[in-house]
């Protein structure tokens, strides 16, 4: 069986607020201390909160087990505590 790419599965990314932004806002760097991480994550989450595809993004991150970065307004630690079902009912921004 040959798997075909499904463009619709990624269509949501075309309207993402982070499209074209520096990835350093969403992903920490080596040696980042707690204060800088918190500030960076707050900036990323503020962007996510206004993003029209936050739900799809969060669902993707939970489904594939994204281990790094802010996705769908959630940090890796926050995602690790949730399953896709609990994360999406109700939809809230942490
Ligand atoms: S929710 Fe955040 S990380 Fe996800 S697409 Fe939107 S801006 Fe990007």
Would you write up a description of this structure?
By secondary structure, the protein is an all-alpha fold. The protein has a domain at 52-89. Helix content is 38%, strand content 0%. It has 4 helices and no strands. The longest helix is centred in the middle third of the chain and has 16 residues, at 34-49. The radius of gyration is 14 Å and the shape is globular. The model has no long low-confidence stretch (mean pLDDT 88). The structure holds iron/sulfur cluster. The site of iron/sulfur cluster has 14 residues, from helix 1 and helix 2.
How would you sum up the global shape?
Answer: globular
Number of strands: 0
> How far is the N terminus from the C terminus?
41 Å
The secondary-structure class comes to mainly alpha
- Contiguous low-pLDDT stretches (5 residues minimum) are none
Residues in helices, as a percent range = 25-40%
Please report which band the strand proportion falls in: under 5%, 5-15%, 15-25%, 25-35%, 35-45% or over 45%. Answer: under 5%
Largest sheet: none
Task: Sketch the topology as an H/E string, one letter per element.
Answer: HHHH
Number of helices: 4
Rg measurement, Å? 14 Å
- In terms of quaternary structure, the protein is single chain
Average pLDDT figure? 88
Q: Can you list the ligands bound to this structure?
A: iron/sulfur cluster
